């Protein structure tokens, strides 16, 4: 910055310019072995992802943070082994879930907290969950 801002509007304008310029950058600072990624920071072994931070072994993710072994996820935080999920946090083994927090083994669920073995927000026994998920995966391809 050449000149220090002397008003709120100058400050906001300078900040807007910095943000715009930053979005144009496609590098992956601090990342290791990333492939076809854009603006991923401190990620490892991540492929085809954008705007992720501290993700490992993720593929086709966007705006995720501290996720590992996730595929096709967006805006997830601290998730593991999740697929095609959005806005989930502190969860693992989710498939096509949205806004789930602290969940494990959920399929097609929305807005659950601390749930496990749910399909379409309905609870199942562990065995029944895996049996039904197998049927769903065959049906969905």
Describe this structure in words.
This protein folds into two domains: 9-77, no CATH class; 88-141, no CATH class. It is elongated and about 65 Å long. A hairpin with a 2-residue loop joins strand 3 (116-119) and strand 4. 23% of the residues lie in helices and 10% in strands. The chain has 141 residues and is α/β, with parallel strands linked by helices. The chain has two helices and four strands, in the order H-E-E-E-E-H. It starts with 7 loop residues before the first helix and ends with a helix. It has helices at 8-24, 126-140; strands at residues 92-95, 104-107, 116-119, 122-123. It has a four-stranded mixed β-sheet, covered by helices on one side.
Architecture blueprint of SSEs:
Layout: H1 8-24, E1 92-95, E2 104-107, E3 116-119, E4 122-123, H2 126-140
Parallel strand pairs: 1-2, 2-3
Antiparallel strand pairs: 3-4
Largest sheet at a glance? 4 strands, mixed
Percent range for β-strand residues = 5-15%
Class by alpha and beta content: alpha/beta
List the total number of helices: 2
Indicate the overall shape: elongated
Report the radius of gyration as a whole number of Å.
Answer: 19 Å
Helix proportion: 10-25%
In round numbers, the mean pLDDT is 93
Parts with pLDDT < 50 across at least 5 consecutive residues:
none
The total of beta strands comes to 4
From N to C, what is the helix and strand string? Answer: HEEEEH
- Number of self-contained structural domains: 2
